[in-house]
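Hey,
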Amino acid sequence: MSAPLLSARVGAGSGFPTLLGKELLRFWKVSFQTIAAPVITALLYLVIFAQVLQDRIQVYGTVPYTTFLIPGLMMMSMLQNAFANPSSSLIQSRVTGNLVFVLLPPISHREFFSAYVLAAIVRGLAVGTCVWLVSLYFNVMPIQHPLWALVFAVLSCAIMAILGLIAGLTSEKFDQLAAFQNFLIMPATFLSGVFYSVHTLPTLWQVISHWNPLFYTIDGFRYGFFGVADVSPWQSLAVVASVFLVLAIFALQLLGRGYKLRT
């Protein structure tokens, strides 16, 4: 193929709507695995922690622990599924050899990027919404700042979608992708304050937590629910938006060069 791939539109048409539809349909056709399973996992966490710690811990002075836990579990589920959507799609296409059919239509690298990221955002938001609906059985506390919650949900899913896109581009085997998930995504997610407020940690671990970008996604999202957080929501928004921009530029550069797509 002529280089670089995905760098120019061919003709008046575009493959963007088709690619976006393909990615949406791909996870929707197995929604029991891609949506129901993460919701059940989050529900199990909620049931176990609610039974054990509900009467023993309050956060921010007045927030019951179960209530505090709900947005953390929502965000954790959204982050993990937004990452999984593009990464699994690309690695499956690479391994099965049908990636070429994704590259043939007249689609630019920006449209390629947008299709995968938008589909991942939709999956992440779908999972998060389902977790929230299930959690209403445990708590009906109104969301204090829904716009803040939505902004952080979309930006956070976009960040993980781009990371999933990068992981899918750079991984050639399933075990390489699994290493990316197990040694980077999973630890960063679990150590971002899903189950605790960082103010309860020793000073050293508080400092380490503040270097974890995913901490700001969850902390800002919690601000949308409770109106209080460990750090200013504006600081969290600045960090999350900056990480999004840096990753987006990097991913677009990889796609613009056709990185590992011509092999």
